Amino acid sequence: MTSDGVVVDEAIRAAWDSYRVLEKRTSAQERRQAQQRVKAAVDSLGREEVSRGTVFLVGVLTGYLIAEQPGDSKDRLDPLSDLIPAVIRRLPAFEKADPEQVPMVTGVLMAAAMGMDTVVWRDRFGQIPPEEALAHSFVLWLLADLFDSLVEKPGAIDQLMREAFKSMATEGR
Questions:
Q1: What percent of the chain has pLDDT over 90?
Q2: Is 137:54 a contact under the CB 8 Å cutoff?
């Protein structure tokens, strides 16, 4: 783990794969492949780095939802009165979401809404425990679902993320 907010690309991809594991539109075969990639990333990088990848993606999606919403500015989601409460209210729908993790995941969302680097912000509090990491994964899914709902196109954010990862792989060569 670095202290400057840098997250290994493979950890970010694995964090997105954990979203794909949760997403019901993911086929059984793709879900198994995503689970294998997450396991491989955890084995090679550690659970902590993959968790940091999830925190990074929560920041990216939050920032994107705030800045890039289609439509009139009066219809935009206000991060403090709309976006964050909407996500936090839906978090208990996940049975495995530990309510004790809500303050930290809310803090990450707030940091993102304020334009802060979510990884740097979260790193100040030490390692991410497994219960919190799981809650961040649920928040990532909720943000992705919100994005798809806003653009009225199921799977839109997954396609966008896949294209971004493909582009990253091409640039790295």
A1: 75
A2: yes
Q: How many CA atoms lie within 13 A of 27 on its CB side?
A: 3
Phi, psi of 27 (to 5 degrees): -65, 160
Token readout for 32 is: 């198994």
Query: Helix, strand or coil for residue 37?
Result: helix
Helix boundaries (H) for 23-129 = 28-45, 47-67, 84-90, 102-113, 118-123
Please state, for a pLDDT cut of 70, what percent of the chain lies above it.
Answer: 90
Q: Which two tokens stand for residue 125?
A: 């509090």
pLDDT tens track for 121-145: 999 999 999 999 999 999 999 999 9
Q: What is the rounded distance in angstroms from the CA atom of residue 106 to the CA atom of residue 97? A: 13
Pair of tokens at residue 10? 């493979």
Nearest to 53 by CA among 104, 88, 93, 19: 19
Q: Up-side HSE of residue 18: CA atoms within 13 Å toward CB?
A: 28
Region of 164 please: left (phi>0), alpha (psi -120 to 50) or beta.
alpha
Q: What is the pLDDT of residues 60-119, one digit of tens each?
A: 999 888 886 555 555 666 777 788 999 999 999 999 999 999 999 999 999 999 999 999
Between the CA of residue 153 and those of 66, 75, 123, 149, 158, what are the distances in Å? Answer: 18, 18, 34, 7, 11
